[in-house]
């Protein structure tokens, strides 16, 4: 009986020692995890690369059909795990007293990874705001959100920050002054008089070829938005071809991108572009598909989706907002086919353009500008929007 008691006591002691070791190991693990979760602000590289406003020389006149274009570029990099954090941008319009009349916050600007945590490295992320001149609700200045902002000197304040549990870990701030004046052009005339903000893709070869095309079309940044779009549309109509995959392989290369001389030219162009970006003369934007457009630009051809994507690249390159529309084209025989075309914002109004159909029919004797600058009602006669 005594022997059994000793054995039982030994088992209890062994179990206690084992549980104690497991507990100590768990505590050490928790401490290690807590230490790992600590974020060091000094190991975060974040910057506001540029802050631009599209405004006339006389200032911004808040009015129907007019808006102030605000564009900014930010970059971010860290090797730390940012689980549970958010990388945000807060844009404010401040009055002379420093109180904000307008505020907008952009959450998780770099996007999230597969696990839902912030992407920890990105360059030249573009922030966009087209402000109509009206205060936001609950603004510090106590202004009515239904009335336009009064004359005076204001500042665009960009507050770029990393937060965790609603606590700011690190931030960068940049401001830019501008004037609100009732003497400045209003409405669509105000937009037409505003400073152009070119938007490049950030893909060296694509931007380089876009620049060559713009030069060939004899487009200048000082031209009106309508004239820029008109020249892009006409140049693509005359110089691009509708080509499917079998034709595309054999097509001519119009731009040298691979020779030593070409590589040097592209390198110099990239250097100049980065300088202009840092000096606030342009922003980087473009979609994730921009890099795929290089071969279609080089061969000046493709199908409707390719032509539409290139039309956007060229318009943005000269400071005109444009985008792609997807849906169906109604043929004369009653059939319909999957199709892509474009819209562009000209002097504050949205118009529609179908450069690919123009390209396909131009050589057949159809007049130039046939599918140029259509209203939504006109575009819907031959296009089904999705």
Short description:
This protein has 386 residues and is an alpha+beta fold. It has ten helices and 15 strands.
Features:
single chain, 386 residues, alpha+beta, 4-stranded antiparallel sheet, 33% helix, 29% strand
How does this model look, in words?
- By secondary structure, this protein is of the alpha+beta class.
- Helix content is 33%, strand content 29%.
- The chain is built from ten helices and 15 strands.
- Helix 4 (225-239) crosses helix 9.
- The longest helix is centred in the N-terminal third of the chain and has 36 residues, at 2-37.
The average pLDDT score comes to 89
Strand elements, count: 15
Q: Main β-sheet: number of strands, strand sense, barrel status?
A: 4 strands, antiparallel
Shape: globular
End-to-end C-alpha gap: 87 Å
Strand order within the widest beta sheet:
4-3-6-7
Helix content: 25-40%
Fraction in beta strands: 25-35%
Class from secondary-structure proportions: alpha+beta
Low-confidence stretches: 25-36
Radius of gyration: 28 Å
Spell the H/E element sequence. Answer: HEEEEEEEHEHHEHHEHEHEEEHHE
Q: What is the count of DSSP helices, taking H or I runs of 4+ residues?
A: 10
What's the SSE blueprint?
Layout: H1 2-37, E1 45-54, E2 68-77, E3 85-94, E4 100-106, E5 121-131, E6 152-164, E7 167-180, H2 187-193, E8 199-200, H3 204-216, H4 225-239, E9 241-242, H5 245-250, H6 260-278, E10 283-284, H7 294-299, E11 301-302, H8 304-317, E12 322-330, E13 336-346, E14 349-353, H9 355-362, H10 376-379, E15 383-385
Parallel strand pairs: 8-10, 9-11
Antiparallel strand pairs: 1-2, 2-5, 3-4, 3-6, 6-7, 12-13, 12-15, 13-14
Helix pairs in contact: 4-8, 4-9
């Amino acid at each position: 009986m005594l022997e059994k008691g000793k054995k039982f006591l030994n088992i209890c002691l062994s179990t206690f020692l084992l549980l104690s070791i497991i507990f100590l190991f768990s505590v050490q693990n928790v401490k290690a995890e807590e230490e790992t979760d600590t974020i060091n602000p000094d190991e975060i590289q974040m910057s506001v690369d540029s802050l631009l406003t599209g405004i006339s020389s006389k200032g911004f006149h808040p009015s129907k059909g007019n808006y102030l274009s605000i564009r900014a570029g930010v970059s971010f990099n860290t090797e730390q795990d940012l689980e549970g954090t958010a990388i945000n941008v807060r844009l404010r319009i401040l009055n002379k007293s420093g109180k904000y009349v307008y505020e907008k916050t952009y959450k998780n600007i770099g996007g999230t990874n597969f696990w839902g945590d912030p992407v920890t490295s990105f360059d030249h992320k573009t922030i966009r705001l087209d402000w109509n001149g009206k205060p936001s609700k609950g603004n510090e200045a106590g202004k009515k959100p239904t009335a336009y902002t009064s004359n005076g000197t204001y500042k665009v304040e960009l507050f770029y920050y990393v937060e965790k549990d609603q606590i700011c870990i690190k931030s960068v701030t940049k401001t830019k002054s501008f004037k609100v004046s009732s003497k400045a052009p209003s409405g669509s005339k105000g937009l037409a008089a505003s400073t152009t903000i070119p938007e490049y893709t950030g893909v060296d070869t694509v931007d380089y070829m876009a620049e060559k095309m713009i030069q060939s079309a004899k487009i200048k940044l000082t031209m009106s938005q309508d004239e820029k779009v008109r020249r892009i549309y006409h140049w693509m109509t005359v110089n691009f071809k509708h080509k499917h995959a079998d034709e595309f392989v054999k097509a001519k290369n119009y731009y040298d991108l691979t020779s030593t001389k070409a590589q040097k030219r592209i390198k110099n162009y990239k250097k100049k572009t980065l300088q202009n970006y840092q000096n606030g003369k342009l922003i980087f934007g473009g979609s994730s598909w921009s890099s795929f457009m290089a071969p279609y630009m080089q061969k000046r051809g493709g199908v409707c989706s390719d032509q539409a994507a290139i039309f956007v690249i060229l318009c943005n390159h000269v400071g005109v907002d444009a985008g792609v529309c997807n849906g169906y084209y109604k043929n004369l025989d009653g059939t319909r086919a999957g199709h892509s075309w474009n819209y562009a914002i000209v002097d504050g109004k949205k118009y529609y353009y179908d450069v690919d159909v123009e390209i396909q029919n131009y050589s057949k004797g159809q007049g130039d500008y046939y599918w140029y600058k259509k209203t939504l009602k006109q575009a819907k006669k031959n296009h089904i929007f999705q």
